[in-house]
Amino acid sequence: MNGPVLSGGVIVLVAALLWLLYFLPSWRGQHQYDAAERNALRLNRALRVLAETSEAPREVQLELNARTALAQQRLAKRLQAEREQAELQRLREQLAATRADPAFRRARARRRTRLTATVLLVLALGAVGLGVWQLVEGGTSILLWAGGAVAVLALGMLQRMTAVARRAARRAARAAAAPAVAAPVREEAELHDQGPRTWTPRSLPEPLVSVNGTRAHAARATIDAQALAREAARAAELQRRVEELAPPAPVELPTPVEEHPAQESPYARMGYVDDAEIEAHVRRLLARRAAG
Questions:
Q1: Number of Cβ within a 10 Å radius of residue 131
Q2: Contact predicate 154/120, CB 8 Å
Q3: What is the C-alpha to C-alpha distance for residues 232 and 206, in angstroms, rounded to an integer?
Q4: What does each C-alpha distance from 27 to 35, 40, 175, 208 come to in angstroms?
Q5: pLDDT in tens, 172-208
Q6: Which residue of 40, 138, 202, 276 is 20 to 30 Å from 121, comparing CA positions?
């Protein structure tokens, strides 16, 4: 029985030793990793503080200058591209305006017509040469006549266009050489002094209404009198209406006649004593005592 127990304990001990052998290196590695990370963080903080409190080194300044120069070059390239794009757009607009010009269209049509006539003339001359060769060889002369007709037509077109171009050039030269026609200047007539006036204007006659003795004056006086009479009648009517609508005048009451006051009774002022009465009474008493 001791054998199996001992063998089981040995196995457990071996397993514990193996577990310790595996755990200790990993724990040591984790501890070293944490310590290195803390040191790196402290170093990063110290470098950041130094960078904020001290001037940038020359290498950093050179790098910043290089970046600035690169950014400026990119900006210059972009501005140059925008300028070229604007110039190209302006040229396109000018080309579109030139193509829309009727004179340019006519010139282009003349060039095309001249080129077509020239090509037809060359082809016609070739056809004439081929027709002559066929005629010499004993063939038909249709190609010769057709080429000759086309050549004559092309020559006529070219001659006509040359004459038109010559007249247009002559007209343009004449218009350029002709001086500008100035606007006609209107000359104002001078005023001459004719001296003092010898003619006296005739006075206008007075209206008949203001002349005494005329029918118009009498009719005007009659009309004015009638108007005054109507105004007086209207004023009288208004006065009558005002009197009718006015309230009645107040009635005056008779004033009472003042009666003569009756003789004052000697007992009327009984109970009212003033200084004068007291002094008079004292004088009477003294006079009576002196007499008696």
A1: 20
A2: yes
A3: 32
A4: 12, 20, 106, 144
A5: 787 777 654 545 556 655 555 555 666 676 777 777 7
A6: 138
3-state secondary structure the chain: CHHHHHHHHHHHHHHHHHHHHHHHHHHHHHHHHHHHHHHHHHHHHHHHHHHHHCCCCHHHHHHHHHHHHHHHHHHHHHHHHHHHHHHHHHHHHHHHHHHHCHHHHHHHHHHHHHHHHHHHHHHHHHHHHHHHHHHHCCCCCHHHHHHHHHHHHHHHHHHHHHHHHHHHHHHHHHHHHCCCCCCCCCCCCCCCCCCCCCCCCCCCCCCHHHCCCCHHHHHHHHHHHHHHHHHHHHHHHHHHHHHHHCCCCCCCCCCCCCCCCCCCCCCCCCCCCCHHHHHHHHHHHHHHHHHC
Considering only the C-alpha atoms of the chain, give the largest distance between any 2 of them, rounded to a whole number of Å: 217
With contact defined as beta carbons under 8 Å apart, do 209 and 216 qualify? yes
Task: Dump pLDDT digits (tens) for 239-276.
Answer: 888 777 766 666 555 665 555 445 556 566 666 666 77
Q: What global pTM score does this model have?
A: 0.30
Answer whether 173's CB lies under 8 Å from 180's CB. no
Listed by start position, the domains of the chain span: 66-100, 108-172
User: CB-based contacts of 129: which residues, under 8 Å, 6+ apart?
Assistant: 147
Who's near 104: CB < 8 A, 6+ residues apart? 98
> What is the per-residue pLDDT across 47-73, written as a single tens digit (0 to 9) for each?
877 766 655 555 555 565 777 777 778
